[in-house]
Amino acid sequence: MEGSATIGDEIEGTVKVNSDRLRELQAFDETKAGVKGLIDEGITKIPSLFHHPPDKFVKASNSDKTEHVIPVIDLANVGKDPSEREEVISKIREACETWGFFQVANHGIHVSVLEEMKEGVRRFYEQDAEVKKELYSRDQKRPVVYNSNYDLYSSPALSWRDTFVCDLAPNPPKPEDLPVACRDILLEYGTNVMRLGIVLFELLSEALGLHPNHLKDMSCTEGLFSLCHYYPACPEPDLTMGTTKHSDGSFLTVLLQDHIGGLQVLYQDNWVDIPPVPGALVVNIGDLLQLITNDRLKSVEHRVLANRIGPRISVAMFFRSGLQSSTKLYGPIKELSSENNPPKYRETTFDDYMAYFDAKGLDGISKLLHFRL
To answer: Domain Fe2OG dioxygenase: where (predicted)?
Structure first.
């Protein structure tokens, strides 16, 4: 048939491109050195594997738009003064229904702990490469996993970052399984964040008009999963991303970021900067909290820009179900739905949600769409 040879050539060409790409990905993976390894080699041009298509949304800075500022909420007297507590709850409600993000100051974690946590992550990535490589793996069952781009083989384009992850609750790793470079501080910081998380979930429950323990009783505070990111300085930051557009597969995320910045949230089709505030932590709603609150609280897409300055260090703590092997179902809370506001999502287990999240990777499409009724 006329044109069949052309179609065949196109198919063959596609396969060739895919196989070439696979070889490139494998070669990068097998170095076990991640993005930092590329920088250590002295590259001045980033590999095409990291090239991203331009984002369709306006690249807007909010530095001159005071109305587009993520709120910073002071928790200093939240447990002491009932009127201040009500004011904080009101601010959290508005932030979570509008932005899906807010920052917290005077959150009870000493600044020295925050600084040591960032330094611990830096020490891990900047230690001897051979020591670090011993932890490099894609086996998610290991207590600590270090690699570059968890969705390396499925994402359309790689992100300019390396990461190590571990579960801190409900079954914390044995200290000897954690990297020496950040062992003590990771456990200490995790304990502090768990304590803060319980306070935040109480405030969120009250913001929804529920009993303070409602979300805690749903096991929202049982699991704590840590991601420690290292974003090396990038020679061509306009061609790539630190982290691509995504929303979080959690109930709630607490983020420690350093002074460099680059975190942005998508608001009304504009990217809005979340500038670092010394001593503050960024808090954002995850997909599962949007699901169980029937869209009352927003899990918003966000991203991290690559930067000529670096490394940028961040530590994301994800509150998740601790019952990962159970059949516990999560669906819209009955108190938050009605005849006029029926459930918008089907019930799902945490395992099933995460299996879908991991299979899809950070493709920029909300995972919640899959669970909508």
So the answer is: 220-321
CATH superfamily of 32-52+60-371: B-lactam Antibiotic, Isopenicillin N Synthase; Chain (2.60.120.330)
* C-alpha closest to that of 32 among 152, 174, 121: 152
Domain residue ranges of the chain, discontinuous segments joined by +: 32-52+60-371
Q: In angstroms, what is the C-alpha Rg of the chain?
A: 21
- Is the whole model's pTM more than 0.85, yes or no? yes
In DSSP notation, 269-293 reads TEEEE----TT-EEEEE-HHHHHHT
- Taking the CA atoms of residue 141, residue 330, residue 102 and residue 100 in that order, the dihedral angle to the nearest 10 degrees is 110
Predicted confidence (pLDDT) per residue in 2-37, tens digit: 443 333 333 343 434 488 899 999 999 999 999 999
Comparing CA positions, the residue from 205, 219, 189 lying closest to residue 281 is: 189
